[in-house]
Amino acid sequence: MAQPSTILGISCYYHDSAAAVVRDGRIVAAAQEERFDREKYSAAFPERAINDCLQRAGVSVLDVDCVAFYEKPYLKLGRVMVGHLVSWPRSFPNFAAMMPSWLEDRLSLPVTLRDRLGFDGPVYFVKHHLSHAAASYYASGFDQAALLTVDGIGEWASASWGQALGGDITIERELRYPNSLGLLYSILCTYLGFQVFTGEGKVMALAAFGEPRFVDRLERCLELRPDGSFRLDPGYFTLNAGTRMFSRRFEALMGPARREGEPLEQRHFDVAASLQALCERILLAMARHVHQRTGLTRLCAAGGVFLNVVANSRILAETPFEELYILPAAGDAGAALGAALWAHHALLGGERCEPLAHAYLGPRYDRERVRRVLLREGASFRELEEGELCRRAAGHIADGRIVAWFQGGMEYGPRALGARSMLADPRNPDMKRILNDRVKHREPFRPYGVSVLAEQAPEWFELDHPSPFMLLVGRIRDDKRARIPSAIHVDDTCRIQTVDRSGEPPRYRALLEAFYDLTGVPMVINTSFNVQEPIVCSPDDAWATFARSDMDHLVIEGFLVDKAP
Questions:
Q1: Which residues of 304-332 are buried (b: 16+ CB within 10 A; e: fewer)?
Q2: Would you state the pLDDT for residue 19?
Q3: Which residue in 474, 439, 468 sits closest to 453, CA to CA?
Q4: What are the tens digits of pLDDT across the range 511-545?
């Protein structure tokens, strides 16, 4: 039997830096650095996240047996160097801007760990897509499962598939850079005038307003194979060779690119719809191929591309896979946990960890800490027992008010799941517009998801699977459509979080039940508690965002805070 161990997993230096701690085979803490340094998609060394995770695990850095990093930096540097040499000399400006950061931090992680944290123990470097696969598989609780990872780029791999049995992972095949579905999606984001990382979700929302009439043109840019693998035509793309990743030839094929801030035209909606259709076609082909090769009925998927909820739902509906598990932190933040889990199982011979029951792995704050913040800020608040707190919050939502909701441990991953959320009434036909214009200050075409009582979800949506991490969509049933107009996207679907009776996060289930008792509708609109910033982390963040926003009430642990004195 393996000795007890404390393993620190880290991802950083690209985007979504994060830390995770696995102690004696249990996933005890995980958090993203952006929640602490308040920089969206922070790529910084996650010192604050590391310290928080260690503190919540009840250990110091002296107790850490090893650190597991989510990729192999030298292997990745080799790919970066080759890419720049292929495009030389046009790639020189990018090369000159990139190399100092590599020399300063990316190639010297053990030195950084020693200097910043005082850690001088072993550091293991795990392949990027293996970290993704390990995160999803070991957290799933499945004994046997097929594996599929798809993202922008790791070292060389942009996608991989394999299978796992009894704790052992085998990667069978990789798709390699520059042939990348995540990269293609990001390129089209910039073509449509959005930024990488922030724009992919916007493009997915935009797609529902268009028709996929440009799919045939996009297909000219790649050679697609029956197994879902493909080869990008380099004539249409300019990787490493300038400030944009598509060429003049691509614009000649697709039309002129939209600049950020320019009006959206129907052509842009149709390009987004075509990209989404192509993405779904590729993912479905990959999933069917993996099922054919493995014969397994459970699929563990990981990588940022699996934040595409429409594609995820089609995999469940249109492939032979009967169960699909996706880590709530499907992107690079989740790879920090994957690296730690891989070290525990494969390197240290640890026993299989328990399944990840919920996403609330971040910091939580006691009632006295919250009280001190509210008193310091001169807030108008009342302390209420749980039943009264939830009934009042439900009543405010039913009256058309917007409630900020802060309870328990912060979510791990990009989705607000009832720990750091803004809540509103889906019955109000103006609520989507109010949230976009008055509170979130974002594009009017973007939809909102809902949190729904799990046992009620099938009565309202065409959804046969639990969706605890809001990674699936469901079509709204015809007889319910008129009752929740602000939850409906233009394609009659809704992104769904099913909330069961597990008790995490505290009070959220009770709030939904109170709203159901009051209105007959077993759900609320749930969007992230932030305004053009990372999701709030601490009570101080919550108060600051609430105070400067146009929200009406804040429910923070056992306190109900009103905006007006």
A1: bbbbbbbbbbbbbeebebeebbbbbbbbb
A2: 98
A3: 468
A4: 999 999 999 999 999 999 999 999 999 999 999 99
Encoded tokens for 234 = 């380099």
Domains of the chain: 6-136+329-347 (3.30.420.40), 176-326 (3.30.420.40), 367-562 (3.90.870.20)
According to DSSP, the residues that pair with 31 across neighbouring strands are: 19
> 560 - beta bridge partners?
382, 555
Residue 462 burial (10 A CB sphere; 0-12, 13-18, 19+): middle
Give just the sign of the alpha carbon dihedral 352, 357, 360, 363. Answer: negative
- Asked whether the beta carbons of 175 and 160 are under 8 A apart, the reply is yes
Cβ–Cβ contacts within 10 Å for residue 267, how many?
A: 16
How far is 436 from 527, CA to CA, in rounded Å? 11
Strand-strand pairing, 472-476 and 144-150 = unpaired
What does the block give as tokens for 90? 């046009």
Provide the annotated active-site residues. 15
Angle between helices 181-191 and 266-294 (to 10 degrees): 180
Closest to 153 in 3D by CA, of 265, 75, 256: 75
Residue 119 has pLDDT above 60, yes or no: yes
Q: Are 213 and 274 in contact (CB under 8 A)?
A: yes
pLDDT tens-digit readout, 206-247: 999 999 999 999 999 999 999 999 999 999 998 866 668 899
> Could you tell me the pTM of the whole model?
0.95
Write 383-387 long-range contacts (CB < 8 A, 24+).
383/558, 383/559, 384/558, 384/559, 384/560, 385/558, 386/507, 386/510, 386/558, 387/510
CB–CB of 326/306 below 8 Å?
yes
CA distance 220 to 310: 24
Backbone dihedral region of 74: left (phi > 0), alpha (psi from -120 to 50 degrees) or beta? alpha
Give the N- to C-terminal CA distance of the chain in Å, as an integer. 60
The one-letter amino acid at 259: R
